[in-house]
């Protein structure tokens, strides 16, 4: 640690200059690859069912093809805890290039898969690379920007994070329509090649610190424990209940391993995840706020395109286009929020974004089977997008801004794990609430099926019964949006503790002053 105490603080310009934008381009390109891939594959699941049908033409069960998403997520969760140590050990430039190569190779292999089982295996390889891209990207940008420009740089990184879930389905639907499912993976190959060459050219070489020993015990506890924990949570929607062996056994084992890791992690000098970072009050408050926001918002976000498809009868591509106003709103406020986060405390920015999202969620409780798009739904989504742009990146900025150069990689890892766990929990909770609400409406399920297959209309009582069932389905969505709105509103409590006045950089130990979050 003594090497860090003598690191001089570079003289950063206040403006976002070309040197920083060059580095930001590398990170954004990697983030686009990783995040787009998640949403592009989501839209291809029905295609996988028929593409990998057995010899008799029987489609693959949806629960099986869903593993193409789950395996990728679990692979991400397994590798993210290793990223902080690996970045310190091998250097961020070399590790980032390796992550892009792994992701690109996994993408090429996925396109060659001849069975659903092989595709799931290759998705694991993709996830090993994809899991490192985001925390490494945050580390690289934080060190390059310096604390005074963090807000504006995080706003740049936030573009793919917010737009990926919106434009991913559009891209996936278009590729499947004009080509084949293979191209949702093959499109990553040329992008990956460009990303590796760009990273080699643009990223400055950094000095790795191989003196730190690897925490093998921590890895054996944390990585499989986190994967089992998330597997149990991800199984809740399919089981329809928490009280199921498929949920409880992996959830319980995973939780026990994670708790054991937490207890153990304070013993080694260099643990896999440095939980001592929680001594930083600003980081802790930001992580709690991010967790609550991620669970509430990403769970609720899942409902909107589903409503368009199930109740309004839109195809996947049209439903994706209807989500675009939300992305437009985020694009408008994100640069503004990023610039403000460099000048005023984030505690004076984030609550306004949360209020817009909360208001939008409460408005969506009123959706029906004939709610006008331009007169209601699209303006509401636009307002929620405005809130998105003013919320996520300022929270991340607050979390990373006061970390020292040596702590950035570990802090980025904590932030990404928090977001991963929060979104998994949020999606599981909202999915179960929605499934139960829908099951309580006797005509809702049959009406949704009849809307997709007109031959079923007469079987459930004719057009009048279908309309009544769709109204019940809309009520189920509205009731679930209410739960999501309440969850987002609780985030305001945590956001109240975000810094509302300028503070000096916090240090997490009693060592000498260290230059905050800078390039070596």
TrEMBL record:
Record-annotated membrane-spanning stretches: 20-45, 65-83, 95-114, 120-141, 153-176, 182-203, 215-236, 248-266, 287-308, 320-341, 348-367, 373-393, 414-434, 480-498
DNA repair among keywords: no
UniProt superkingdom: Bacteria
Keywords associated with the record: Cell membrane, Membrane, Transmembrane, Transmembrane helix, Transport
Entry keyword DNA-binding: no
Family assignment from sequence similarity: Belongs to the major facilitator superfamily. EmrB family.
Protein name: MFS transporter
Biological source species: Terrabacter carboxydivorans
């Amino acid at each position: 640690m003594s090497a860090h105490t003598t690191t001089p603080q570079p003289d950063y310009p206040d403006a976002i200059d070309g040197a920083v934008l060059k580095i930001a381009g590398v990170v954004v390109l990697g983030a686009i690859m990783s995040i787009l891939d998640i949403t592009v594959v989501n839209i291809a699941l029905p295609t996988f069912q028929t593409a990998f049908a057995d010899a008799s033409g029987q489609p693959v069960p949806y629960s099986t093809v869903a593993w193409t998403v789950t395996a990728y997520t679990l692979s991400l969760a397994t590798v993210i805890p290793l990223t902080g140590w690996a970045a310190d050990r091998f250097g961020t430039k070399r590790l980032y290039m390796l992550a892009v190569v792994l992701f690109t190779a996994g993408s090429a292999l996925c396109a060659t898969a001849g069975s659903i089982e092989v595709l799931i295996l290759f998705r694991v390889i993709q996830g090993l690379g994809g899991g490192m891209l985001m925390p490494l990207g945050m580390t690289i940008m934080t060190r390059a920007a310096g604390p005074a420009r963090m807000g504006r740089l995080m706003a740049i990184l936030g573009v793919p994070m917010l737009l990926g879930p919106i434009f991913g389905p559009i891209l996936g639907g278009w590729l499947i329509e004009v080509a084949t499912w293979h191209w949702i993976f093959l499109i990553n190959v040329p992008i990956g090649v460009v990303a590796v060459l760009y990273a080699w050219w643009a990223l400055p070489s950094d000095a790795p610190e191989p003196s730190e020993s690897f925490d093998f015990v921590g890895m054996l506890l944390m990585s499989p424990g986190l994967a089992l924990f998330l597997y149990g949570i991800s199984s809740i929607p399919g089981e329809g209940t928490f009280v199921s062996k498929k949920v409880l056994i992996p959830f319980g084992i995973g939780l026990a391993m994670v708790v054991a890791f937490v207890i153990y992690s304070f013993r080694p000098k260099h643990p896999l995840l440095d939980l001592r970072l929680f001594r930083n009050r600003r980081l802790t408050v930001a992580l709690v706020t991010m967790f609550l926001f991620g669970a509430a918002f990403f769970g609720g976000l899942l409902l909107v395109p589903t409503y368009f498809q199930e109740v309004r009868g839109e195809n996947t591509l049209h439903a994706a286009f209807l989500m675009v106003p939300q992305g437009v709103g985020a694009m408008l406020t994100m640069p503004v929020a990023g610039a403000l986060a460099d000048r005023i405390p984030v505690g004076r920015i984030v609550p306004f974004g949360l209020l817009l999202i909360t208001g939008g969620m409460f408005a969506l409780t009123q959706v029906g089977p004939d709610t006008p798009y331009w007169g209601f739904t699209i303006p509401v989504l636009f307002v929620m997008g405005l809130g998105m742009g003013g919320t996520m990146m300022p929270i991340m900025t607050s979390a990373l801004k006061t970390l020292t150069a040596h702590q950035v990689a570990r802090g980025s890892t904590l932030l990404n794990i928090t977001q991963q766990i929060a979104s998994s929990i949020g999606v599981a909770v909202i999915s179960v609430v929605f499934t139960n609400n829908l099951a309580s409406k006797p005509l809702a399920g049959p009406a949704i099926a009849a809307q997709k297959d007109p031959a079923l209309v007469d079987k459930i009582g004719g057009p009048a019964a279908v309309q009544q069932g769709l109204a019940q389905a809309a009520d189920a969505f509205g009731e679930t949006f209410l739960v999501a709105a309440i969850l987002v509103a609780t985030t305001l409590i945590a956001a109240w503790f975000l810094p509302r006045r300028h503070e000096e950089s916090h240090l997490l130990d009693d060592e000498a002053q260290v230059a905050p979050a800078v390039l070596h």
